[in-house]
Amino acid sequence: MAGHDERFMRMALDLAQAAANAGEVPVGAIVVDESTGEVISSGANGPISAHDPTAHAEIVALRAAALSRGNYRLTGLTLYVTLEPCAMCAGAISHAQIGRVVWAADDPKGGAVVHGPCLFDQPTLHSRPVVEGGLLADESAALLRNFFRERRSRPAVGQA
């Protein structure tokens, strides 16, 4: 499984790079059917371009997977994402009944799986996926650091 995990996470990292190239925070996500190895859907961060605060990579990928499956319940599927999911995304993952979540970089500030509210540990949660963090974490963290470093180094709009 480890070889497959890395391949899928690299696909998510490619989506994260595409998001960065579009001026979005570089996060990418892939939903995979583990029984067949089929990629069901993918998503990249898009809140800025979509004018939608919910257009996180995970939400985009979950919506596409649900449409593809004709069902909002995505049991038996794995979500690969380049950053630890936030509370909104973790809630959607639970409602979708995703079976497994694999993420790359931890997010101590905005994450909600092993940081912050640790949503999947809450006793009232609908569904708890198996969670695994840290796969290709250095690559994902470097992509995020470079993105924000570049944004900070640009002059503000209207300045020379």
What's the story with the biggest beta sheet?
A: 5 strands, mixed
Number of strands: 5
Shape: globular
Mean pLDDT: 95
* Structural class estimated from helices and strands: alpha/beta
Order of helices and strands: HEEHHEHEEH
Q: How far is it from the N-terminal to the C-terminal residue, by CA?
A: 51 Å
Regions with little confidence, pLDDT below 50 for 5+ residues: none
Integer-rounded radius of gyration: 15 Å
For the biggest β-sheet, the strand order reads: 2-1-3-4-5
| Beta-strand residue percentage | 15-25%
Secondary structure blueprint with pairings:
Elements: H1 2-21, E1 28-33, E2 38-44, H2 47-50, H3 57-69, E3 77-83, H4 87-96, E4 100-105, E5 130-133, H5 137-153
Parallel strand pairs: 3-4, 4-5
Antiparallel strand pairs: 1-2, 1-3
Helix pairs in contact: 1-5, 3-4
Quick overview of this protein structure:
By secondary structure, this protein is of the alpha/beta class. The protein has helices spanning 2-21, 47-50, 57-69, 87-96, 137-153; strands at 28-33, 38-44, 77-83, 100-105, 130-133.
Detailed description of the structure:
By secondary structure, this protein is an alpha/beta fold. Helices cover 40% and strands 19% of the residues. It contains 5 helices and 5 strands; from the N terminus they run αββααβαββα. The chain has helices spanning 2-21, 47-50, 57-69, 87-96, 137-153, and strands at 28-33, 38-44, 77-83, 100-105, 130-133. The chain has a 5-stranded mixed sheet with strand order 2-1-3-4-5. Helix 1 (2-21) runs parallel beside helix 5 and helix 3 (57-69) runs parallel beside helix 4. The longest helix is centred in the first third of the chain and has 20 residues, at 2-21. The N and C termini lie far apart (51 Å). The model has no long low-confidence stretch (mean pLDDT 95).
